[in-house]
Amino acid sequence: MTDVRRVYELGDLLVSYLERIGVEYVFGIPGGAIEPLYNALARSARRGGPRPVVARHESGAAFMADGYARETGRLGVCCGTTGPGTTNLITGVACAYEDQIPMLVITAQTALAYFGRGAFQESSCTGTSTVGMFQYCTRYNTLVSHPDQFEHKLVTAVMSAFHSPNGPVHLSIPLDVLRSSSSVESPSYDLVDLITRFSLIDYEATVKLCKLMEDARKIVFVIGNGCFEAAGTILDLAALTNATILATPHGKGLVNPYHPLFRGVVGFAGHDGANQALTDPNTDLVVAIGTKLGEWATGGWDCTTLLNERLVHVESVEGWLTRSPMAKLHIRGHLLTIFEYVLAHMCKRRPDRDVATVTDTWRRQMVENASRKNGTLNFSMHDALKCFNDSMPIKPQRLMRVLAEIFPPSTCYLADTGNSVAWVTHHLHPFDRRIGGARNTNPGFFRTSLEFASMAWAIGAAVGTALGHHMLRPVVCITGDGAVLMGGQEITVAIQERLPIIFVILNDAAYGMVKHGQRLAGAEPIGYELPQIDFASYAQALGAQGYTIKFPQDLLELNVRALCEGDGPAVLDVLVDPEEIPPMRTRTRVLQAVK
């Protein structure tokens, strides 16, 4: 098709910058005031450049950009038009802010000349100020009030998204500014170089860590989601020093559950083996890496396990070190650089122990163990026998076990806020042949949003994840009926984009975490009931495949390969036992402690 463009507009310059840094998609919903950006995206799409993916609600667009950024390590980009198109983005942007996701948020304003005159959906500083709203959930936030500001503010925004801590940035652009012709027809700055991470290291503190490790009787590593790039090196170091490995709920996906040194998840929905490793009298050094040490990672700020004088906190984000003033040592810097140094140092101190030989032996043992139907983990789970219970309605514990059996080892699981994340954190342990952790910049086999923790995050994020890796591996979204009623319309984006995402719905006709939280706390049982929805029929009405799952056998009889390789999503409506209590007691204790 012939390009009908007559001038090079600011929207074209924006798209050119995005293409330079590898961005493939802009997630959002069009509208009159943001039309120039969509015009530029249309021109870009025709030549094979970045293209729009149209969400059904702007919060879904932000969740998609979040999922795309996590999967690729690139910038996630979302956009919205004036007024409610912008305010609808805020929940998704707030999630990205708390989870440190690099994201560019582009929103529209009415034309500058109309500011203060009551224009349709006005959201300027003289109306409902959307720039003011984004002030508290972005790393950089500005109104572009003149075309000559645009390029510099865009570059500043993208650099800010990747500076520690990572996070969303926001450009609010009036219609007339966005429609302006550009004074340049190609990017003036090399953003690829400008957003390259520096390999900084606190040398003095890192040398102290080496000394502490040399002298320690028993070492425990606690791996957070910030370790994605360094996980392989950290696990090699654990093999060399025979250190116990634990993960926060956020970092669970970075460690093979069958790793010989892994003793489970610490904190929310965690495992007794993790607590035992931390409270063992012989444990005299606990190294927490790449974790904010918030409520869920610390089991409600538990001082007996993690937050005490045995702790060394290693972080790339200096601000998170304020969460551990009791630690004996703080180390700031690029995590991979720090642990490459420590590993090299410890290898010199342990010439008798070859990491490659150890991990090869473990890998053979691990494959043999996990290949057995009832392969054993090195830590115990609550109600473990229910993982093999074939009664109806299906036990959530059993569901997690079957999902790990039927989906390929490469599967990426996303868990939504609510009962879903509790069951997945504690009971989902897929087999993975890797011993050495993540091999690229994506955060392993498991994703969740546990800080701002919006329901329906996983539904949108699954779309962004699938687009990010072009469906090179299966994507399974584990969500609840409440989350689907809140954001399930984004399943139609997977249909439109022909993405074979598997949406697993834990259907218990309730806001399950609310219901069980009330029961555990002795609160009034109110406001948790939901109608019993036939989500298989719902999916079919949308145009997706839909299956009702009543027994574990229903799952085992599915043609999983066909679902994973299809040309659209499938919804598994799993009727779970509503009386099974999820492993969420640490959260209840925190709520009850508030007087």
Tell me about this structure.
The protein is α/β, with parallel strands linked by helices and about 600 residues long. It folds into three domains: about 10-195, Rossmann fold; about 205-365, TPP-binding domain (Rossmann fold, 3-Layer(aba) Sandwich); about 380-595, Rossmann fold (3-Layer(aba) Sandwich). It is built from 24 helices and 18 strands. The strands form three sheets. It has a six-stranded parallel beta sheet with strand order 2-1-3-4-6-5, sandwiched between helices. Helix 2 (about 35-45) links the parallel strand 1 (about 25-30) and strand 2. Helix 3 runs parallel beside helix 5 and helix 3 (about 60-70) packs across helix 17 (about 455-470). The longest helix is centred in the middle third of the chain and has 17 residues, at about 355-370. Mean pLDDT is about 90; it is low at about 1-5.
Rg, rounded, reads 24 Å
- Span of the ends, CA to CA: 66 Å
The main sheet orders its strands as: 2-1-3-4-6-5
Discrete helix count: 24
Shape: globular
Spell out the blueprint of helices and strands.
Layout: H1 10-20, E1 25-28, H2 35-46, E2 51-54, H3 58-72, E3 76-80, H4 84-87, H5 90-99, E4 103-109, H6 130-133, E5 140-143, H7 147-162, E6 168-174, H8 175-178, H9 191-194, H10 203-215, E7 218-223, H11 231-241, E8 244-247, E9 262-265, H12 272-279, E10 283-289, E11 311-315, E12 329-332, H13 335-349, H14 355-371, H15 396-406, E13 412-415, H16 419-427, E14 446-448, H17 457-468, E15 475-480, H18 481-487, H19 491-496, E16 502-507, H20 512-521, H21 535-542, E17 545-549, H22 552-556, H23 560-564, E18 570-575, H24 585-593
Helix pairs in contact: 1-2, 3-5, 3-17, 10-13, 11-13, 11-14
